[in-house]
Each structure stands twice: as structure tokens, then as C-alpha cells.
Amino acid sequence: MPALSEVLTALDALWPAERAEGWDAVGTVCGDPAAQVERVLFAVDPVQAIADEAVSLGADLLVTHHPLYLRGTTTVAASTVKGKVVHTLIRGGIALHVAHTNADTADPGVSDALAGALDLRITGPLVPDATDPHGRRGLGRICELPHPMTLAELTAHAAARLPATAQGIRAAGDPERVIRTLAVSGGSGDSLFDAVRAAGVDAFLTADLRHHPASEATQSVGAVPPALLDAAHWATEWPWCEQAAAQLDAVSDRHGWGLRTHVSRTVTDPWTAHAASVPPTPTHTTGAPR
Ligand SMILES: [Zn+2]
């Protein structure tokens, strides 16, 4: 059985901490480097439900995509939400390690897993990492669909392939438009519209699209603007957990560690309900604009 320090070295090799954004908080949050590791749980969010799941699983290490503390704190008292997570993990003998923006830009990274879940063929990064001599690392991925689909079909395809959430998938654009090329970016991607336009793709799938950036991205003079698909943030990043677990399995096999990796299926997207609006019905013409 490997020591936590050995497993952390392997995780750092997969997602080097120095490739994280300057504002990010990646790496090991808690854990004794000398502790032995057998069971590892992968999840998107280090929330209480996931900490509890790690305890009932008997995990020794929890690896999450999102940081527990993005900014500094002066307390880990169990009377605080995040402090309770820390207490739960330490009492359970469970280390917590975070791979966030360093996993976003990795090869393979978060968007490779998202593209894989959608059966897409990746042609390159959406925003290449200038320091990668192979041109494969970077934010987002530009992809080709396995076969052309209408926007309506692609929206249904994404809803069927990504893990189920209350939000599902919403789309912006002509539902009958034929989509052949798609940019994807796991997590909040509305800062990437310039790159999406420059890539000339038919559509862009990401999460957390806000009114103004989405509205502006769907208007244009001349070139046809990309159609947009907006999925639940958690759903776009969950496929990375399976990919990451498989990567650690491969390392474990190479070293003969015998690690047992698990992927949490607990939906931690904060949105828990959704109702489609009642379709507009034809109304009488009194007061109609002239
Ligand atoms: Zn995220």
C-alpha cells in the first residue's frame, strides 16, 4: 500500500500545481503524508455530502475538482460549513486533494472528458497553452461531431450523454440548424466567446452562461454566430472524475499499489428542480403592437 505522499506525487505529475491559475487554490488541503492509501474517491465538489460518502466508503483520499477554500480562512471550526467538512475528513482519516484549473488545461483534461462523454472527435484546444510544445494542452476543446446533427438533436444528445441534473441542457439558436463542429469547455465558459468565434465552430457547449454574454454572442453582423448549449456546471465536469480515476488506476497498476478508485455519483449541482414554462398560447389581437 502506498503512502499518501507517493500518491500525491503521482497526482502532481498528472496535474502539476504550477499550471493552475494564479487565483486558484489547488493541491492538498488536509492529510498526513505518511498515512497509507488504499481507497480513493473522485468527485467534483468537496461538499458535506461527498465528505460523508468518503467516510462511508472507507476512503483514505478524496480528490475533487473544485477547491474547498478558494480564499484564505482563519477558522476550520466545525460550526462552519467548510470547517465541518475538514473535521469530517480528518476524523475519518481522509486526505483531500484538489486539481482544478491545472486539470482544466491538462492533456487529457476536463474538456477532453466532456468531449469523450459526447462521442466527439477532438481536433485541438480552444485556447492553446502557449507553453505546450505539442499544442494539445489548453482551455476547452474544438471538436467534430460523430455525424452532423441539428441543434435540437445535439441538445437531446448532450442531455442523454451527460449525467442527469435538474437543469438538463438549454440551447440558443435555430433548433433546425445543422451542427458539424462544436467547441466544449467544462465549467463556466462564457469568457471564451472570442476564442469560439475565432475557431469558427457551429456551436459551443459549456455551463453557467449569463444573459448578456450569451445575448451578445448570439448576435452578429455578417458571420453566422455559434449556437450555444448550456449544461449544468457539475454535469460538464463530472466526466473528468471517471477519466481521472482511470488515470490513477493506470499509475497504481504500474507501481503495483493495488489502489481501489471510486467515482461519486452523488449529484452536487446546486440546482435541484426545473419546470419548463407553459408554452405561449395564441392570444386575441387587442392591444397587439402596430
Ligand atoms: Zn467547475
Which terms would index this structure?
six-stranded mixed β-sheet; five-stranded mixed β-sheet; Udp-n-acetylmuramoylalanyl-d-glutamate--2,6- Diaminopimelate Ligase, Chain: A, domain 1; 9 helices; single chain; binds zinc ion; about 290 residues; about 30% helix; 2 domains; 11 strands; alpha/beta
Describe the structure.
With 290 residues, this protein is α/β, with parallel strands linked by helices. It folds into two domains: 4-103 and 237-263, Udp-n-acetylmuramoylalanyl-d-glutamate--2,6- Diaminopimelate Ligase, Chain: A, domain 1 (3-Layer(aba) Sandwich), CATH 3.40.1390; 105-231, 3-Layer(aba) Sandwich (Udp-n-acetylmuramoylalanyl-d-glutamate--2,6- Diaminopimelate Ligase, Chain: A, domain 1). Helices cover 32% and strands 23% of the residues. It has a six-stranded mixed beta sheet. Helix 2 (48-57) runs parallel beside helix 3 and helix 5 (110-117) crosses helix 9. Bound molecules: zinc ion (ZN). Zinc ion is lined by residues 66, 187, 233, 237.
